[in-house]
Amino acid sequence: MYLYNSATHKKEEFRTHTPGHVEMYTCGPTVYHFAHIGNLRSYIMEDVLEKYLRYTGYDVNRVMNITDVGHLSSDADTGEDKMVKGAKREHKSVLEIAQYYTDAFFEDCRKLNIKRPDVVQPATGCIDEYIKIVSALLEKGYAYSAGGNVYFDSSKLSRYYVFNDHDEEDLAVGVREGVEEDTNKRNKNDFVLWFTKSKFEDQALKWDSPWGVGYPGWHIECSGISMKYNGEYLDLHCGGVDNAFPHHTNEIAQSESYLGHPWCAQWFHVHHLNTSGGKMSKSKGEFLTVSLLEEKGYDPLAYRYFCLQSHYRKALVFSYENLDNAVAAYQKLISRIAALVPGDGEVDTAVFEAYRTKFNQQMGNDLNTSMGVTSIFDVLKAQTNDATKLALIGDFDAVLSLGLLEKAAAKRTAEKTPAKTTGGYTVTGEGDSAIDALVFQRYEAKKAKNFGEADRIREELRAQGIEITDTKDGASWARA
Ligand code: AMP
Ligand code: ZN
User: Fold this and answer.
1) Which helix (H) or strand (E) holds 307?
2) 249 and 377 part of one domain
3) Lesser CB count within 10 Å: N end or C end of the chain?
4) Residues 169, 305 share a domain
5) Cα(312) to centroid of ligand 2, in Å?
C-alpha cells in the first residue's frame, strides 16, 4: 500500500518494522464531553485504515488512549483543564465524567461500525510509565524542573518541527488565546511533562511522583501508553490534523529523546470536518453528535458513507444538504444490492479476483475511499451473476463497513412481507399481490361458509408450492 506520511510529506510504500505486523497507535478522545461528528470523522478514517491493513493480510495491534487527565483547553500548557471543566459543568466527579463519556464514545463507534481497538487505555492507568520516562529524560538532560513543574527542553533537539516549519506566531498559542504565558519555560516550545504546581486548585486527580504530588502533561500519556503496548518501534500513528502540532511534535521529541532512536515511522493525519463557519468544535455553533443526527432521522451509517465519499487528506464541509445527498446515494446503493438474488449461481473466481484487485488498487493508493465506494457501483454494473456481485460487495465491506449486505437483506425481507389488511383481515406473504388476493378470496369463501371453495383455493396454492398459515388476525403465506 502507498500511504501519505506527514513526517516526510510524501506518499510512501507502507513498510513495517516487523514484516507482516503493524503496531498502530491512535490518539483517543478527551472524555469531557460527547465526541462531535468531526472527531468521529477521524476515527472512521482510521478504522478504514486499520481494516484495510488487515484486509491485505497484516496482523495489526491497535492501541488507543483515553484522555482522562492533563488535556488543557489550548492543546498547549495553557487554559483550563478540560476534564475539570467537564466535571464542573455537570456537577460530577472527573472519574464519573470520564466513564460516562468513554461509554458514550464507544456507543457512537458501535453505531458507526468503528471497531474497538485491541487495547484501550485510560491515561490515568499508566502513571508509572510516565514517571519512568520523565525520570529518564531528566537524567539524560532533556528535561528540567522549574517552578515545581517538569518541562521538556526543546533546545536540546536539532530538529523540533518535524511536520512543518512553524512561524513563531503559531507557537504563541497562549498569547493568541489571551491566556498568560508560562514564565518557567526556558524556550517558547518547551512543554510540561509533569505538573506539580497546578494552577488548578481543584485538580481532582493527583499522584505521588519524585517531583511531588501532581499529574502528567497531555503529550506524555500517548508516548507512555504507546511504548507500553506497542513497544519501542511504532509503525503507524494516527490522529486528526490538529494533533500534528503541538501534540505529535511533542510526542516525537520526548519519545525519541527517551529511546535514543527513531520512534514512529509513519504519521497518518485526518483533515478536519468543517462547517461553513470553519472548523467544527464543541464550543462553536450547533454541537453535532451522532445522537443529534439520529434524532433528526439520519442513519449513523449514512454519515459514515458521507465521510468515505471524500479523501481523508481534504477538509470536508458538513451541511445537512451535503448529508442528504449522501443519504440518497447510500439508500440507492442498498436498494440496488437488495435487488440482487442471493444464491443465484456460483461465485465466478476470475471475475471476483479481477474486481478485488481493482478495489485493492484504489484503497492501496493512499486510502482512496471514494474510489473504494465507486468500486461497489462498478461491481453492480459488472457482467456477472448475482452470487459473484454479492461476494465482492461483502468482501469490500469488510473494509468499508457500511453494513451493505445486512441492510440489503433487511430490505429484501421487508419487501417480501408487506402486510395487507382488508376489512380487518391481514395477509402477509412474499410480495406477490395476486397470491395475496387468492388468500383473501379463501377468507371470504370461509366467511360465506363456502368451505369447498376455501379448500380449493388452498389446494390451488399448494400446487404452486405455497403454504397458507392462519394467524391471529388473518393469514400468512410462504413458498416452501
Ligand atoms: P479530542 O477528543 O479533542 O482529543 O479529539 C479527538 C480526535 O478528533 C483527535 O484525533 C482530533 O485531532 C480529532 N478532531 C478534532 N476536531 C476535528 C474535526 N473538526 N474534524 C476531524 N477530526 C477532528
Ligand atoms: Zn495523543
Assistant:
1) helix 300-308
2) no
3) C
4) no
5) 19
